[in-house]
Amino acid sequence: MSRTWSPPFPLDVGSVLGPLRRGAGDPTYQQDATGAVWLTANTPLGPGTLHVRRPGAAVEATAWGDGGPWLLDGLPALLGADDDDSGFEGHHPLISETRRRKPGLRLGSTGRVWDVLLPSVLEQKVTGTEARRSYRELCRRFGTPAPGPVPVGMMVGPTPRAVLGIPDWEWHKAGVDSARRRALIAAAQVAHRLERAVELRGEAGRKLLRLIPGIGVWTAAEVAQRSWGDADAVSFGDFHIPAAVGWALLGKPLDDEGMAEVLAPYSPQRHRAVRYVEASGFRKPRFGPRFSPRDYRAM
Fold first, then answer.
1. Of 158, 144, 140, 73, whose CA–CA distance to 109 is shortest?
2. Cβ neighbours around 18 below 10 Å, total
3. Are 233 and 120 in contact (CB under 8 A)?
4. How far apart are CA 268 and CA 153, in angstroms?
5. Cross-strand pairs, 2
6. Per the CB 3.0–4.6 Å rule, which of 49, 94, 218, 293 could disulfide with 127?
7. Which residues lie across from 289 on neighbouring strands?
8. Backbone φ and ψ of 43, nearest 5°
9. Which uninterrupted H or E stretch holds 59?
C-alpha cells in the first residue's frame, strides 16, 4: 500500500516526526541516512508499519499490515497538515530567528493516544537512559514484529491487553518501578476511552488523560504534543525544559513558575515556542556531573 502527498507548505519530515523517536535504539522508529523514516503503530485496524520519504517535492509513503490503510490516511496530519500556526509571534529574537530558519518545523499528530502514552509514562521521574531501556525491553518482550520488509529489530509496541498481561517479575526485569507500573496498568484498563482525548483536544483532552492515577500535567502534555499536535501543551515538571528555556531566552535558569511567566505571551501556542527553542541549537551551560541513572533491575 502506498501514497504520494504534496504538502502545501514547507516541510521538514525529520523535524516533524523526530519527537516520536524514543532514543537511537527505539524499536518502533528508525531513520536512515537519507532521512527516510520507518515507524510502527497500533491502529484501530491493527498493527502497521509506515515508511516515509521525501525524494523531491512530494512525500512518498508505503505501509504494511492491517493498520497500513489507517496510517496512510493519517499521513497529512502526521506531517503537520492540521497544524495552525496563524497568530504566532516570536517575542524573543532566538524564537523569531529559529522560525525564519526552520519554516518546515510543524506539529504533527499521530491521531492515537496509547502508543504515545506508554513511553511517556516510562519517562516519568527517571533519566532518558532508564526510560528508553525499559521501553526497548517491553517492546521486544511484549510487542509484535513489525509488518513488512522492515529494518532488523523493528517492533510494534505492546497493546493495552499485552500490558495487562505482564507479570510482576517482567516489569522488574524491564526496570519499571511500581509507580509507573501502576499508572500503565490503570491506563491500559481504560485505553479505549482515553483515545477520545484526540477528539476533545486542548485542555479538555489533557484533563481526560489526567483522570488516570499516575498521569499528571507533564505526562498529559507529552501525549498531547504528539497525539494531536497540541500547540499549547507545555511539559511543566520537566527536569530540563525550564532551565533550557530560561537560559535561551533570558540567560538564566528558570523553574516552572518562571517558565510559565516567560511563555505567557505565546499562549495559546506556548509549546510551539518551546519547540523553536529546542530546534534553535542553543544548549544551556553545564555546571556539574550528569545524573546517574538507577537500575531498578538490580533492586
1. 73
2. 16
3. no
4. 40
5. 62
6. 293
7. none
8. -115, 170
9. strand 59-64
CB neighbourhood size of 6 (10 A) = 9
Q: Is 269 exposed, middle or buried (0-12, 13-18, 19+ CB in 10 A)?
A: buried
β-pairing verdict for 59-64 and 144-145: unpaired
User: What sign for the dihedral angle of Cα 104, 109, 110, 114?
Assistant: positive
List, run by run, the mean pLDDT of 10-residue segments along the chain (299 residues): 96 95 95 92 98 96 98 98 94 96 96 98 94 97 96 96 97 96 98 97 98 98 98 96 96 96 97 97 71 53
CB atoms within 10 A of CB 91: 14
State pTM to two decimals: 0.93
Q: Which residue has 497568530 as its cell numbers? A: 87
Q: What pLDDT, on a 0 to 100 scale, did the predictor assign at position 136?
A: 97
- Name the residue type at position 96: S
Report how far residue 167's alpha carbon sits from residue 215's, in angstroms, rounded to the nearest whole number: 22
